[in-house]
Amino acid sequence: MSTKSQRPEKGQLWIACPRCRQRTLYWDNPLRPFCSDRCKLVDLGNWADGKYAIPVKPVSEGDLQAAGSAGEPDATDSSDENI
Ligand SMILES: [Zn+2]
Q1: 46 pLDDT band (50/70/90 cuts)?
Q2: 24 C-alpha to center of ligand 1: Å?
Q3: Which residues surround ligand 1, an ion (CB under 5 A)?
């Protein structure tokens, strides 16, 4: 009866390639987290094509002031009455 275990050696870490889900070693893998040069290039190509859009919310000066002075009343809205 064999008691061979499939456990990886100590220090080994297997990850799934983000492109093809193939198992690949994390350590000693210059292409990580990808399994191959091909997968890496495909993924980089997607970024270049804008398929992965990172939502960026522009921060205005008003947002910064609101965050810095929480609780203070905003008096700029009533400035029209002075005109
Ligand atoms: Zn892959």
Answers
A1: confident
A2: 8
A3: 17, 19-20, 22, 35, 39
Indicate whether 38 pLDDT > 70: yes
Residue 31's domain spans which residues? 1-67
CA of 2 to the centre of ligand 1 (A): 33
Asked if residue 79 is part of any domain, the answer here is no
Write a three-state SS string for 3-67. Answer: CCCCCCCCCCCEEECCCCCCEEECCCCCCCCCCCHHHHHHHHHHHHHCCCCCCCCCCCHHHHHHH
Q: Does the residue 81 lie in any domain?
A: no
* Domains: count for the chain: 1
How many whole angstroms from 10 Cα to the centroid of ligand 1? Answer: 24
CATH of the domain at 16: 3.30.50.10
Residue 6 Cα to ligand 1 middle (Å)? 22
